[in-house]
Every structure is written in C-alpha cells, then in structure tokens.
## 1
Amino acid sequence: MVYYHIPVMVREVIAYLNVRPGRIYVDCTLGGSGHAAAIVEHLMPGGFLVGIDQDKDAIENAAKILSDHASQIALFQENFVNIGLVLSRLGISKVDGIFADLGISLDQLAQSGRGFSFQRDEPLDMRMDESSGVTAEDIVNDADQRELSDIFFKYGEERWSKRIASNIVKARQTRRIKKSSELAEIVVESIPKKFIAYPQRIHPATRVFMALRIVVNRELERLESFMDKAVDLLNPGGRLCILSFHSLEDRIVKHRIKAFEKGCTCPSNFPACVCGGETKLRSLTRKPVRPTQQEIEVNPMSRSTKLRAAERI
Ligand SMILES: C[S@@+](CC[C@H](N)C(=O)[O-])C[C@H]1O[C@@H](n2cnc3c(N)ncnc32)[C@H](O)[C@@H]1O
C-alpha cells in the first residue's frame, strides 16, 4: 500500500518535541511516516527513533520510507499502550520525546479495505490491528439497541442515535449487516430528510462510523493508559507531544496533563499531602496549538487538529 497521508503541523511537532541530535524519540503512531521522517532528519547525527504502529501496513511503509536510516530506527507493530514493553525489548529505560498523532490515517480510510469509510463497499471490520478484538460487524449485529444508541451518542455526538440504533436492529432481523455501504445506507435513511442538507461539510454517516471505530479500537481508554505510561518513560526535560482530532481525545489529553502537573490528589482541605502524588509534567500549551490558516488551506483535513505538549520535570 502506498501512503498519501499528509502529516499535520510538522514544524510545530518538531519544535514542541525539541528534537535534537543524539537523543532518543518515540513516534507511537507512524501512519505514513511523515512525522517520523522529519524527526529522523532532526535527530542526526547520533540519535535514535523508535517507531510504533498497531497497523502492519504502516510498519511495512515505514520500513521503506525510512530505509536510508535503518541503523537509527527500530520499528514495532504494537499498540502504543505497550510502549514500555517495546522500549524494554531495546534495553532503553528513558527517552527524550514521545509523540502520538491520534486516530486514523487517510490511507486506512481510503485503501485499507477494512470498512473505515462510509463511501466504500467493504467488510465492516474497522480494526487497525487486524489480529485483535471484535470488529465493527460484531458490534453492529450483536450489541443491543440501547448499547448501539449509547455508542453513537457518546462517541459520535450523533443526535439521531436512537433512530439509527432502532433501524439497525430492524434491518438485522432479516440479514446480518456486513458491509460499510449497508450501514451507511441505514444511517442516511434514519435521519429526517430536512436535516440532511446538501451540499454539506460532512457526510451524515461520519459520526456513526467514527463512534464505531473508537469503540472497536478502544481508542479513548488506551489513550489514557498510554499517557500514564509515557510520562514515566521520559527523561527530565523530555517532551510529550500529542495531536488529536476529536474533542473527547483532546479532553483526555488536557486532563491527564493537568493531573500530572498537579501531582497530589488529596482534597484541598487536607492540611498535608497523604497521597504521595508528585508533579511530573509542566504543560507547554495552556491552550491547544492549531494549524495555521495556510496549512488548513493546503490540507483541509488538518482543520480540527489540536496539539498539546508537556515537559517532564
Ligand atoms: C493519523 S495517523 C498517523 C499519521 C502519521 N503521523 C504520518 O505522519 O503519516 C494515525 C496512526 O496511528 C495508528 N494508531 C492509532 N491508534 C494506535 C494505537 N493505540 N497504537 C498504535 N498505533 C495506533 C493508526 O494505525 C494510524 O496508522
């Protein structure tokens, strides 16, 4: 698979990660390796990049794109929650920067054949790591109506979640829903026509597909657990830099950084700290950094990106 994903906010990522020669960095979401290639360029001479992605296509692509620097990289098909395990395999205990660019790549959406897009007629899979867990088909056909509606509402902020869930349950009484196009059709038919205005900025099935993808890949819980592990793998002065696209993701990133800044979790009326929680991070971005207007014009997909970064104390 040839990758076409355009990396977002590359200049800002390099600056916030503070990429310097001779240091060690981890790109936890290689995707099309655009950010990874920029990191490698800035860590020379003498630096090292550990590259992780749960999708085997991304790892194969990275091996090609970064082949000129093979001695300065190590690639792993892993979930980024296992970052500690990956580093211990390499005998590395601490690193100088950890980067994650959350969500899905344009290439997974357009050409993975795994049903991420409502515009294609593909099996409803949606697993980024094809060797793990339940598929979107399992959820769409096996979850009860209430669960489906909750998923669409909570993770997709879909206002028609109940109607969509009810129509899915009706449709599956006669057949198993197996294709992305079938699901997209049910979603479109569930939304009253007057609320489907054409031309529109997003397809009516966008939110349902995004919600399912988040649940299939357990994206939010893994993000939280990843951040907790990443913080303890940074050298003092090391940087954590995260790009998010979804408000729920950004909320987690913001709150975890805040919690590590605060350290202590004792109630404010306690005379002294008894929890032993220590301050581990200093936020470098009080407000999330957004792409420039110029970048959004060149790459409209970048428009909802938020960058947050913090430094290990
Ligand atoms: C937005 S793309 C990254 C794009 C990349 N920065 C570039 O320059 O092309 C997100 C990538 O993260 C991967 N990914 C998402 N969640 C992951 C996780 N929990 N563990 C490992 N990889 C993950 C996806 O498979 C996808 O390839």
Note: The chain has two domains: 10-107+219-312, 130-215.
## 2
Amino acid sequence: MKAAVRDRYGPPEVVELREIDRPVAADNEALVRVRAASVNPADWYSMTGRPYVARGMGGILKPKSDRLGIDFAGTVEAVGRDVTHVRPGDEVFGGRSGALAEYVCVRDAVVPKPVNLTFDEAAAVPVAAITALQGLRDKGRLQPGQKVLINGASGGVGPFTVQIAKALGAEVTGVCSTRNVDLVRSLGADHVIDYNYEDCTRSDQRYDLMLDIAGSRSWSECKRVLTPRATLVIVGAPKGNALIGPLGRIVKLRLGSLRSSRRVVFFIAKLIRPDLEILRELIEAGKVRSVIDRRYELSETADAFRYLGEGHAQGKIVVTM
Ligand SMILES: NC(=O)c1ccc[n+]([C@@H]2O[C@H](COP(=O)([O-])OP(=O)(O)OC[C@H]3O[C@@H](n4cnc5c(N)ncnc54)[C@H](OP(=O)(O)O)[C@@H]3O)[C@@H](O)[C@H]2O)c1
C-alpha cells in the first residue's frame, strides 16, 4: 500500500510517498481502508520533531515510526476476533497514528461515520472536533446560557468550537480576521470580533469561559474580559522555539494566573470512542458540520503540511486517497 512517510525529523520536504506492507489487524483491531485523512498541528510537531522536549515518546534522535497522520475516514476491510463495535463493510471515522496511508489498523477510536457526511468531511472531524468538545464540556464546564469567547474561531479547531458551544447552549463570540468573519457568523456565532479592527480584550463584555485556540493574548489581557469565576482553557499556542515550543507560553499563562480567582486550564485532547459517538450524533442532528479549506492527494501530503504550517487555514486540510 502507499503511505506518506518520513525517516527523519524536518520540514515538509522530508515527507515522501512510499510503498509499504499493508498492516494486518490484530485480535483487537479493525483494518480500515482509508478514503480520506486530515492533518492537524499535532502531525506538524510529529513531522518536525519540535519542540525537542516533546520527543521522548516519538524518538529522541530520529522518529521511531516513519508513519504520519491521525484523523481518517474509510471503510472497514476486516476485524480481529475481539472487535464487536464495527464490522467489515462499515463506513467509519476515527483516529490512529499512521492514518496518512491507504490502510490503517485501529483499536478503539473508530465508530460509524455520520450518514450525512462524505469521507472527506468525516476525516476533518476527529482531532479538531474532540478538542472543541472536551475543551468546552470537560475543561470549560460550559453551562447553557453562559458567555463564551473563542479566540481563533476560523482554523481547524475553531469552527467546531463555535458550533459545539452553540449546541451546548452558550452565547458565542468568535474572534477571527476579516476574511473569516462571514464564515464564523455562518457557523452560528452570536457575535464576531474581527481582530484586525477590534481588540476582544478591550470590550465591555465579560465572559464566563474563554477558549484560547490562537494563543495570541497574554494573561493580563485575557483576564480583563473574564468574570471573577471564569475559566480560560488554553487550547493552542504559537509554535515557539525549537527547545520548548508552545510550552513556554502555557507555563507563562499558568504562572501569571496563580493568584487569580479565575481558573486557567491546559489540556491535550483524548481521542476516545464515546466522544466520537457524541460528535456523530451532533453532526447527524445538523448541529455541527465540517468546514474544509483545501484538499490534497496522498502524493501531495508535503504540500498539505506546508499549507498547515502557514497557520492560516480556513477550516480543515484534507488528504484524499
Ligand atoms: N490542546 C489540544 O489537545 C489541541 C488539539 C488540537 C489543536 N491544538 C492547538 O490548537 C491550535 C489551533 O489548531 P488548528 O488546527 O485550529 O490550527 P490552524 O488550522 O492552523 O488554525 C489557526 C487559526 O488561528 C487563527 N489565528 C491566527 N492568529 C490569530 C489571532 N491573532 N487571533 C485570532 N485568530 C488567529 C488563524 O486565522 P487567520 O488566518 O484569520 O489569522 C487560523 O484560523 C494549534 O496551536 C494546535 O496545536 C491543541
């Protein structure tokens, strides 16, 4: 089968298309024929091997695995004898490392795909939408009627965050640049702030929850618009330096808020089956949809990474098989 692989850490140029052995499903795995995948900043960090402090599990000097990608949608080809939640022939979506390939073996994080989405649209969902769901519901403890500020409402994670916050009953304000204002409004945001013209931290509004996806504001700026009992959920941060990357900003925000009555939380999303099922329900109920910016073929995966690395996607970047 064909797969997008890399033998060393580096820029998108290290990624190449290669013929490798098709995997065989273990007893607890399903073999999925991937129809579409999507790329996330996590794949960028895995490709570049930056920041260095995060290399522990993936290989210190060179990557332990040559495979890339997480998000996929496709068709189940075969299942191991212990697998009962999906069957051969099922159209599914989920996440597993190595998804940028024609086939992937996946253990738990795979469920039937929403009936109203194409494979491309379904492949755009897993990491970004689970991040939005867990950030709002678990870390942000969002309650209906609360006011939520979403800084970075237009990239991979932002559009899902706007829609899921609305589905959870919040009053949503999305922050984006001029060219994305219509997109964010069309996703259901009650208010949209264009960061080219307006500073969201200088508004008279007070928010119960802020999800910082863009990572563009300091703690002293954020706290101006947070109620005394509010929560700031740190979702993303700029790439930072080679050694500690985005971690520097996260530590700074946490330290800055130590004496505050507000909560500041950072988390790494977990790709778990129950949350994939909740997302499928939200999508099939028409409450959440995928926004796809660009599509690339598997042979163009390096280009997909180049575009992701620019950090200005308007929705998700999908790789089709
Ligand atoms: N914690 C987790 O588990 C988790 C999971 C997934 C992703 N993340 C992190 O979340 C971040 C975003 O991921 P993504 O997939 O959405 O990335 P992305 O697709 O590259 O999107 C980045 C978005 O940020 C916007 N942006 C840039 N500067 C901004 C600013 N000053 N104010 C407001 N928005 C701004 C960009 O919009 P413009 O083009 O309009 O500037 C773009 O839409 C990354 O740091 C990623 O590592 C974390």
Note: The mean pLDDT is 96.
## 3
Amino acid sequence: MISNRLKSLVKYINKTDKIIDIGCDHALLDIYLIKNKYINNIIVSDISSNALKQGIKNIKKYNLDNYIETRLGNGLNVLNNNDYIDTIIISGMGTYTILDILNNKYLENINKLIIQSNKDYDILREEVCNLGFNIDKEEVILDKDKIYINIVFIKGKSKLSKEEIIYGTKDMINKEIYYKYLLDKYNKIYLLSKDIKLKEKIDYIEKMLSN
Ligand SMILES: C[S@@+](CC[C@H](N)C(=O)[O-])C[C@H]1O[C@@H](n2cnc3c(N)ncnc32)[C@H](O)[C@@H]1O
C-alpha cells in the first residue's frame, strides 16, 4: 500500500513519459505505477546504497526487475547520453536538495518535472522558473499533519506573478491549507520581530482567506 501523499502524484504521469524517479528510497511509487500499468518502465535512483537496497528488495518481491531499472548515485548524474528521459519525479525532499539535483546539464533534455517538496515552496517556484520552466499544476497535500506541495513544471517561459511565486498559482488545489500554514508561520515570526513587511503579508493572506 502506498501513502496518499505518493498516490497524489500518479495523476500527473502519462503513459508516454520517459521517467526517472530520483530519491526513490523504497521504490513504492514506482512499483505502484508499473503494477497498475500507468507506465511500462522507469529508471529509479537513490544516493544512499541502503535506501536503494530496500528499493531493490521491494522490486524483486513484486518480480518487476525487468520494468524498473535501479541506479545508485547523486541526482541526475546517474543518467548518460544513451538514456532518453524527459520527465523527472522528485518527492518527499526539501527544496534545497531538490534544487541541487536540478542544477545539472541533463536538465536541458527534460520537459516535465513532478516535484513534491515539504518546505520553502516560494524559493522552489522562483528557482525552477529561473531554470526555464513554468508551473502547469499545483496541489497542496496534507499527509500525517505535514504539508507538501505537488508542483508540475513544464519547460517554457514562466508567466507567474510575484504573488503567485510567494502564495502559489491561482488554480492551486487546496490553497486554503497552504494559506493557513503560511499565516501560522508568519504570525509566529511577527510576534517576535514586529516586522512591518511581514504584517503586510499576514494582511494579504487574511484577505485571500476571507474571499
Ligand atoms: C525522504 S526520502 C523520500 C523517498 C520517496 N521519494 C518518497 O517520496 O517517499 C528521500 C530519499 O532521497 C534520497 N536522496 C537525497 N538526496 C539525493 C540525491 N542528491 N540524489 C539521489 N537521491 C537522493 C535519500 O537517500 C532518500 O532515500
């Protein structure tokens, strides 16, 4: 069984996508994708040999070695010019680790990024847009009291406004959950800092929540 957090990523995947799942760990998402025939094959990788061992064990358990190729290594460095990959999945990681992974020349070949970060979403939106991507879909996920945002980036010029970089795109699903999370975070900092700029942000979010 996979978590709702992982399952929430499935709808962004098309059968024709040529995918690498970076930081696959247990490889549960990848096993689910293949078993349920969402895709025919996938490359999965992890920087940790122990994590990848667990993934390989699970893949073997389901007899899926012919469909899931495992690679040990750091981010996109596990790919070479003979690989034809156009889609990257990175889930369950922080924004700075995700950005480190994306900062790689192989990104030129990539058309779609399916990213699930657990913090610093504004930095993620801004930096990935600076890498030549635009946001196609966004959804806030609450899993075991922890917030994640799924963001699907597609190659192209970003059309995001400054507000969308900070607060998410207009069409973001479950945006109220994210606004309440931001409000709580900003209020805590404001209590100590009395920063006037933060107060403006708090007022802005309260207005959005009341609309
Ligand atoms: C918290 S787990 C998330 C696993 C899975 N993607 C999920 O969403 O449940 C993060 C995994 O990413 C791996 N990881 C961290 N940095 C990495 C990198 N630069 N390249 C490849 N894997 C990495 C870790 O070893 C770990 O197994």
Note: The mean pLDDT is 96.
## 4
Amino acid sequence: MIYRPLGKTGMSVSIVGLGGEYLEGQDTDAVRQVMDRAIDAGVNILDIFMSEPNVRSNIGAALKGRRDKMFLQGQICSAWVEGQYTKTRDLAVCKESLEDLFVRLGTDYIDIGMIHYCDTEEDMKLLEDNGIIDYCLEMKKSGRFRSLGIGCHNSTIAKKLVETDLFDVLMFSINPAMDMIYNHYSIDGFMEKVDGLKDGGEAPAQLDVDQERAELYTLCEKKGVGITVMKVYGGGRLLSADTSPFRQAMTTSQCIQYALSRPGVASALVGVKSVTELEEALKYLKANDEEKDYSWIFNHIESYSGNACVYCSHCQPCPVEINIAAVTRLLDQARISGITPEIRQAYDALAVKASACISCGACNTRCPFGIDAMENMRQTGVLLG
Ligand code: SF4
Ligand code: SF4
C-alpha cells in the first residue's frame, strides 16, 4: 500500500480507501470479510455516511479489537428517520444519530468528523444558524473528532467552504466525467477545446479539468486541506462502455489514477460490497503506467449523451419510501439491455415500486447532480410497473 498525508491532520492514509455505502444490505460475515481483506492490504480509511443501523453495527463488529487499524470518516447530519436515510440539519437529530454511530462502531472517537454534504449557500447558512458548526468544533476540541471535514459536490461552494479555514478535510466527487462534463450542463466549451486538440492543437495543462474544479484542488493543496474522493467510478457508470459518457469503459485503475492525480487528493474511497470488488480496486497498486493511463478518454467524447444518475441516494427520503437510487439503477440497466429476467427479478424484489411515486418533486430538489429523478420514476413505472 502507498500512504499519503491527509492534509495537515497528521494522519497518513492509504491511497485506496473504502467508501462504506455498498456494505449496507450485506450481512455481518460479508462486511467482516471485506474489512479483513482491506486491513490485510493496508487500507486504513473508511467513510461511513450510512445511517442505516445494521451496517453501522456490522462495521463496528468487524472492527472490534482492531479499531486502531482504520481511520474512520464518520458522517454527521445523516440520520435514520422512520426507516429511511435522511440528510438533516436538525441539531438534535444530528447529535442523536452521531451518538448512535459511536455506540454501534464501539468507539469513543472518530478520526474525521465529516459534515454530510453541503452544496448551496443556503445550506452553509443552515450549518451556522442551526449550531452544527459550533457543535462540530466542540467535538473536535474535546477529541471525539480528531479532525473536521465536510462533503460537497459543487466546486463553487467547496471553495467557499475551504476558504473558511474551518475544515481539515474535504470529501469531494472527482472523476473525469464530473471534472470535464458534469460540472456544466453545456459541454460546448469543452468540445471546442477538444476539437482544437484533435486538429493538432496543444493541450493546455488543465484542458482535462474544469477551471474552477482545478482551482479548488489547488486551493486545498495550498491550505493543507486533505481531499478524500467519492464517486471515483461515477457510480459504476465509467466502468461500462454502455454507460460512460466517453463511450468506452475505463478500468478501476484508470479511475483511481485519475482521482489520485488531482492536487490535494489523499485517498480515493472506492465503494465495494464484496472482497471481489475490493480486489478489483487493489489491482491499482500493481498496475503499470500503461494500465493506469486514462488519456485516451479525449478521443471518446463525441457521443456524450447527457447527465446521469450516480446512485448516491442523496435524493432520499421519499415520502412513499421508494428506493430511488435502486430503481434508477435498474431503469438504466433496462434502457441498455432491455428487461432481462435478472432486472425483472431485482425490480420485483423492491418493497416499493416506482409507480407509487406521488410526484411530490422532493427528490429533484435534493439531487446534487440535477437529475430529474421524478421523471425517472415515471419512466420506470411505465417500463417496469
Ligand atoms: S437522482 Fe441524484 S441524488 Fe438520487 S441517486 Fe441519482 S444522482 Fe443520487
Ligand atoms: S417525486 Fe416520487 S420518487 Fe421523488 S420523493 Fe416524491 S414520491 Fe418519492
């Protein structure tokens, strides 16, 4: 394993880290097996944004007796309310959910107290007004948080957050599609640059990254704010030619290499649900330069077909309890391959179907990526029921 300093926190974290989201729904043994292999491979950082009680307890059980082997990035403001994940700025609910996290993890400290993502100025104000920032600073002063971080998907807001000097760590979504395409809803400017490149033009140093995002990474590096990366594979979308905007599958090593090549980045947190998926990510450590090279993506953007869901669940909760990310993932698969028996079976197993959607629009207002989740529910209802 290779380790990098996590900004100025004093922690040295593995360049391949774990995002915990796909451990939700796995049983105790499966979580333990992933943790065993991760620790064996030298992985020492794990993000836990999940509020679902079982996954928290399973991670706690898997870490029993070896808590010191893993830096825990535990999120505050993610809560389990009426059987669903909820993002909240209600201080009392945040405190209760955080105490639950401490208990279920069996620990009295969290290495990186991570404020669940903030993507707007209004939300920044809420964090102040509702006392969440003050509470987090108290937690840091008392040592229950060893450092303080915040998650974000928006480079404009992320820069403002970093400029406050309140945070030691930034959790940010980084992959080539987001850096080059998804940060803008128009790709015209980017296409012009790439056309110029194809015509023999020389690539400017930052051709591959939106300027503001590039500035953010440099700012973090300058200020000693360590970046932990989410959405390394773009929700798995970049790993398939059918779903990647580059119309060619990237490998896990290429995605990880891309994230680790940005200034300020300490660790690429990959979401895995099994040892097999973890092994796939760990291949990066043995990959040669050719295997890590992602530069070919410049040649494959002609057929970019629009913004797409990354299955992050930030649009929850849904008043009728639709699992929007799970439904959308099946919809996307069905769009590509038709309704296979596997898709039918997986959809039938969902407790609440897309057709239960009451078109309240709440999911659309919460999606950080501008996805029309409500329309996706409508289309799924037509397609799958
Ligand atoms: S619709 Fe948006 S918030 Fe919901 S899962 Fe997809 S990308 Fe995430
Ligand atoms: S629009 Fe439909 S899917 Fe979205 S939150 Fe409302 S009921 Fe749920």
Note: Residues 91-105 form the longest helix (15 residues).
